[in-house]
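Notes from hallway chat w/ T.B., transcribed later so I don't forget. T.B. wanted the structure written out for a chain they're using in a teaching module, and asked if we could keep both sequence and structure tokens in one place. Agreed to drop them here.
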Amino acid sequence: MRVVFDTNIFISAFVVPGSQAEKAVINIIESQDTLVISKDITGEVLSVLSSKFSRDREAISRTAVNLSELAEVVYPRKKIHVLQDEPDNRILECAVSGKADVIVTGDREMLKLKKYQGVKIISLKEYLET
């Protein structure tokens, strides 16, 4: 299964040891699922870790390397404007461009969509139960 994690999943995984989000990342490492990510998603994750969680430059660099090794990086060419929050649109762009099967998110607005261009949008709990 091809999976896109929303930024909130990555942040929880990196900031809260033992969290459900961390279990999702471990699931990617140990399973046949392929994590799909874009430069925009990586940039947002690094920005949030730096600004809201005061991660130093070295930690940010390690995180960037880890994300690029863990995931298949895609380069969306088509901009999507479906959701009000622009970073959420970057998630949709990545999923469509990367031919993902699912988006895993905790974002309520995104979860309301349920599906976008054939990509299922599910909660972290749903992902961990599959």
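Follow-up for T.B.: The beta strands are 2-5, 34-38, 71-74, 102-104, 115-116, 119-122. Might be a good example for the class.
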